[in-house]
Amino acid sequence: MAKTGLGRRLLQAFTWWHGATWGTALTTFLRGEEVGIDQFGNRYFRTRKGRIDPALGIERRWVIYADRADASTIPPGWYGWMHHLSKVPPSKDDYTPHEWEAPHQPNMTGTAQAYRPRGSIFRPDPEASITAGYDAWTPGGEGDAR
Hints:
This protein has helices at 6-14, 22-31, 76-82; strands at residues 32-37, 43-47, 61-64. The chain is an alpha+beta fold. A three-stranded antiparallel sheet has the order 1-2-3.
Protein backbone atom coordinates (compact mmCIF):
# COMPACT_ATOMS: atom_id res chain seq x y z
CA MET A 1 0.00 0.00 0.00
CA ALA A 2 2.30 2.75 -1.24
CA LYS A 3 1.00 6.20 -0.38
CA THR A 4 1.78 9.43 -2.16
CA GLY A 5 1.92 13.06 -1.16
CA LEU A 6 0.99 14.20 2.31
CA GLY A 7 0.07 10.72 3.56
CA ARG A 8 3.52 9.38 2.70
CA ARG A 9 5.23 12.37 4.35
CA LEU A 10 3.24 11.83 7.56
CA LEU A 11 4.20 8.14 7.59
CA GLN A 12 7.87 9.10 7.14
CA ALA A 13 7.64 11.59 9.99
CA PHE A 14 6.22 9.16 12.52
CA THR A 15 7.34 5.69 11.38
CA TRP A 16 10.60 4.24 10.09
CA TRP A 17 9.16 1.17 8.36
CA HIS A 18 7.37 3.00 5.51
CA GLY A 19 10.08 3.97 3.02
CA ALA A 20 12.95 6.25 3.92
CA THR A 21 13.12 8.34 7.06
CA TRP A 22 13.82 12.04 6.63
CA GLY A 23 17.48 11.49 7.55
CA THR A 24 17.88 8.73 4.94
CA ALA A 25 16.09 10.82 2.31
CA LEU A 26 18.39 13.77 3.02
CA THR A 27 21.52 11.59 2.91
CA THR A 28 20.31 10.04 -0.33
CA PHE A 29 19.70 13.46 -1.86
CA LEU A 30 23.04 14.94 -0.77
CA ARG A 31 25.41 11.97 -1.07
CA GLY A 32 23.59 9.15 -2.83
CA GLU A 33 23.73 7.76 -6.33
CA GLU A 34 20.93 5.45 -7.50
CA VAL A 35 22.24 2.13 -8.76
CA GLY A 36 19.03 0.33 -9.69
CA ILE A 37 15.54 -0.89 -8.91
CA ASP A 38 14.52 -4.51 -8.33
CA GLN A 39 11.32 -6.28 -9.39
CA PHE A 40 9.59 -5.25 -6.14
CA GLY A 41 10.24 -1.54 -6.62
CA ASN A 42 12.99 -1.31 -3.97
CA ARG A 43 15.57 1.33 -4.94
CA TYR A 44 19.28 0.76 -4.29
CA PHE A 45 21.85 3.49 -3.65
CA ARG A 46 25.55 3.94 -2.93
CA THR A 47 27.75 6.87 -2.07
CA ARG A 48 28.71 8.88 -5.12
CA LYS A 49 31.81 7.78 -7.03
CA GLY A 50 35.01 8.38 -5.14
CA ARG A 51 33.38 8.78 -1.74
CA ILE A 52 34.50 6.25 0.83
CA ASP A 53 33.04 6.07 4.31
CA PRO A 54 35.99 6.79 6.66
CA ALA A 55 34.61 4.53 9.40
CA LEU A 56 34.08 1.56 7.07
CA GLY A 57 36.81 2.13 4.49
CA ILE A 58 34.35 1.18 1.71
CA GLU A 59 31.47 2.81 -0.10
CA ARG A 60 28.17 2.79 1.74
CA ARG A 61 25.23 0.97 0.14
CA TRP A 62 21.59 1.17 1.17
CA VAL A 63 18.08 0.37 0.04
CA ILE A 64 14.88 2.39 0.17
CA TYR A 65 12.00 -0.07 0.25
CA ALA A 66 9.02 0.38 -2.04
CA ASP A 67 6.54 -0.24 0.77
CA ARG A 68 7.26 -1.67 4.21
CA ALA A 69 10.85 -2.12 5.39
CA ASP A 70 11.23 -5.88 4.99
CA ALA A 71 14.71 -7.22 4.32
CA SER A 72 13.26 -10.49 3.04
CA THR A 73 12.07 -8.61 -0.08
CA ILE A 74 15.68 -8.11 -1.24
CA PRO A 75 16.40 -10.60 -4.07
CA PRO A 76 19.61 -12.71 -3.89
CA GLY A 77 21.57 -10.66 -6.46
CA TRP A 78 20.86 -7.41 -4.69
CA TYR A 79 21.56 -9.01 -1.30
CA GLY A 80 25.05 -9.95 -2.51
CA TRP A 81 25.67 -6.44 -3.79
CA MET A 82 24.37 -4.80 -0.60
CA HIS A 83 26.74 -6.89 1.54
CA HIS A 84 29.77 -6.26 -0.71
CA LEU A 85 29.87 -9.85 -1.94
CA SER A 86 29.64 -8.55 -5.50
CA LYS A 87 31.14 -5.41 -7.02
CA VAL A 88 28.68 -5.39 -9.92
CA PRO A 89 25.04 -4.53 -9.10
CA PRO A 90 22.37 -6.71 -10.75
CA SER A 91 21.16 -3.69 -12.76
CA LYS A 92 24.37 -3.69 -14.84
CA ASP A 93 24.56 -5.59 -18.12
CA ASP A 94 27.64 -7.59 -17.11
CA TYR A 95 25.98 -9.04 -14.00
CA THR A 96 25.45 -12.80 -14.17
CA PRO A 97 23.79 -14.63 -11.28
CA HIS A 98 25.55 -17.65 -9.84
CA GLU A 99 24.09 -21.07 -10.60
CA TRP A 100 23.34 -21.60 -6.92
CA GLU A 101 21.22 -18.44 -6.57
CA ALA A 102 17.60 -19.42 -6.08
CA PRO A 103 14.75 -17.14 -7.11
CA HIS A 104 13.41 -14.90 -4.37
CA GLN A 105 10.75 -16.27 -2.06
CA PRO A 106 9.09 -14.07 0.54
CA ASN A 107 9.34 -14.85 4.24
CA MET A 108 6.05 -16.51 5.19
CA THR A 109 6.60 -16.57 8.96
CA GLY A 110 3.45 -15.45 10.75
CA THR A 111 1.16 -16.15 7.79
CA ALA A 112 -1.12 -19.04 6.93
CA GLN A 113 1.52 -20.26 4.44
CA ALA A 114 4.25 -20.57 7.12
CA TYR A 115 6.05 -23.91 7.42
CA ARG A 116 4.59 -26.10 10.13
CA PRO A 117 6.40 -29.38 10.82
CA ARG A 118 4.64 -32.65 11.54
CA GLY A 119 3.43 -32.59 15.11
CA SER A 120 3.00 -28.82 15.28
CA ILE A 121 -0.15 -27.68 17.06
CA PHE A 122 -0.69 -25.21 14.23
CA ARG A 123 -0.66 -27.86 11.50
CA PRO A 124 -4.08 -28.03 9.84
CA ASP A 125 -4.23 -31.81 9.22
CA PRO A 126 -6.16 -33.59 11.98
CA GLU A 127 -4.10 -36.83 11.91
CA ALA A 128 -0.98 -34.99 13.09
CA SER A 129 -1.17 -35.20 16.85
CA ILE A 130 0.90 -33.03 19.14
CA THR A 131 3.19 -35.94 20.05
CA ALA A 132 3.65 -37.19 16.49
CA GLY A 133 7.36 -37.35 15.73
CA TYR A 134 8.46 -36.52 19.28
CA ASP A 135 9.65 -38.88 22.02
CA ALA A 136 9.37 -37.69 25.59
CA TRP A 137 12.48 -37.94 27.76
CA THR A 138 12.29 -39.96 30.97
CA PRO A 139 14.95 -39.98 33.68
CA GLY A 140 17.03 -43.16 33.79
CA GLY A 141 15.78 -44.16 30.38
CA GLU A 142 17.75 -45.15 27.31
CA GLY A 143 20.63 -42.78 26.60
CA ASP A 144 20.71 -41.30 30.12
CA ALA A 145 24.31 -40.71 31.19
CA ARG A 146 23.87 -41.80 34.83
